[in-house]
Amino acid sequence: MNVGFVGTGNMGRILIEAFLDANVLSPSSIYITNRTIKKAEKIQESYPSINLCLTVEEVVKNADYIFICVKPLDIHPLLMKIREHLHEKQCLISITSPLTVEQIESMVSCQAARVIPSITNRALSGVSLFTFGSRCSMEAKLTIKELFSHISTPIEIENNITRIASDIVSCGPAFFSFLLQKFIEAAVKETEISQEKAVQLASEMLIGLGKLIESGHYTLPALQKKVCVKGGVTGEGIKVLDSEIGDLFIHLFQRTHAKYDEDVKVVTEQFHS
């Protein structure tokens, strides 16, 4: 099985490196290209056996599964460019949320799927979100899920929860790293702890929290109750969080959904034109 990557920016490179680290793909089975070819060349420097292609058509010619890792507005013109080179046994896999598999299928004769990855997949963990097109064969579905099962937990979703699922899985690491950074900054500002020590303690705490949740020993509410001693310090901190966070996350989701709706509108206009 040969796998192609059109676009080797942040997420394209993360997927390539994760698959290689997980030993689920070999460098010689991967075909890559990028609009700025130097980005693809840097990957080949790390993995000399990887196949560097100067054109998208070359990737399409050699790959059975083709990941489209470009910006949403670049996908329509890309599909126009390669549609005549695709055949029904191939499968296009988009990793962008504003584009539906139905839109891809409306332009090409091959199979289509959407997989929304997460930066956590680089650590061979986290979740990847799946939506399959109507022409996607059972063989293709199983192959793609098997591929991602080595670097994530694959979960199928419906179109109507695409944005919120992406917010949690894909955007979540950025949101919570931002909160963790603010947590650290406040600790350094209000006490005598050093930045280095605060980062070390907070990072190890978060890793431990993740493992604790993964173990299944506690639900999130149970974990809070376990740490909170009646009349203790943690309880006072929780009171502050409860009173000051308010509708923070509601506003966050409202903003991400508004941006998503804007992107969907523009992409839809492309496909209807």
UniProtKB/TrEMBL annotation:
Gene3D superfamilies: NAD(P)-binding Rossmann-like Domain, ProC C-terminal domain-like. It comes from the Bacteria. Belongs to the pyrroline-5-carboxylate reductase family. InterPro entries: 6-PGluconate_DH-like_C_sf (IPR008927), NAD(P)-bd_dom_sf (IPR036291), P5C_Rdtase_cat_N (IPR028939), P5CR-like_CS (IPR053790), P5CR_dimer (IPR029036), Pyrroline-COOH_reductase (IPR000304). This is Pyrroline-5-carboxylate reductase. The keyword Cytoplasm applies. It comes from Aeribacillus alveayuensis. Catalyzes the reduction of 1-pyrroline-5-carboxylate (PCA) to L-proline. It is found in: Cytoplasm.
